[in-house]
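Private note to self, pasted from the team thread so I don't lose it. Backbone tokens:
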């Protein structure tokens, strides 16, 4: 079962896979290899790794990319895996018949995997400017400090230096 979530409507897109039949430890060794990499590099790594956990993770990355391109209009070349988590989910328990009428418990571990893709074409200044306009400040250059009474001004003419206005 694959569930798709979209959290930050400006730069991030989520994909969530629940109740995947493998232990979280086995999925983590694959997730640790792809965290922080670009989409194209991730697809190559997942196709060439010999582990069984690669296929469901590959499906999740592909699903998150489809969400990003269809819902948000992002380009696949600008996507980076910013966050990838594996959490332990429910355990399926069965009984296996053994000798002399006894039973032996079998535990099938499941996990849930979260893949977060971030668009790196939108740089941080544009993202902060969008935040200021959403909050209604409309002055991205002026930043007030909470501890002090003076104001800090962003000087755009001298290579981005900061100076205090008292």
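Design output:
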């Amino acid at each position: 079962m694959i569930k798709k979530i979209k959290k930050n409507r400006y730069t991030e897109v989520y994909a969530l896979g629940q109740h995947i039949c493998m232990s979280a430890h086995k999925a983590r060794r694959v997730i640790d290899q792809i965290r922080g990499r670009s989409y194209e590099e991730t697809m190559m790594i997942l196709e060439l790794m010999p582990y069984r956990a690669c296929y469901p993770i590959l499906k999740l990355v592909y699903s998150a990319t489809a969400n990003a391109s269809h819902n948000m209009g992002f380009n696949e070349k600008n996507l980076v895996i910013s966050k990838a988590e594996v959490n332990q989910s429910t355990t399926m328990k069965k009984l296996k018949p053994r000798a002399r009428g006894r039973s032996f418990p079998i535990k099938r571990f499941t996990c849930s995997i979260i893949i977060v893709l971030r668009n790196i074409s939108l740089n941080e200044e544009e993202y902060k400017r969008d935040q200021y306009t959403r909050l209604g400040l409309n002055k991205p250059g002026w930043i007030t400090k909470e501890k002090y009474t003076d104001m800090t001004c962003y000087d755009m003419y001298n290579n981005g230096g900061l100076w205090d206005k008292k």
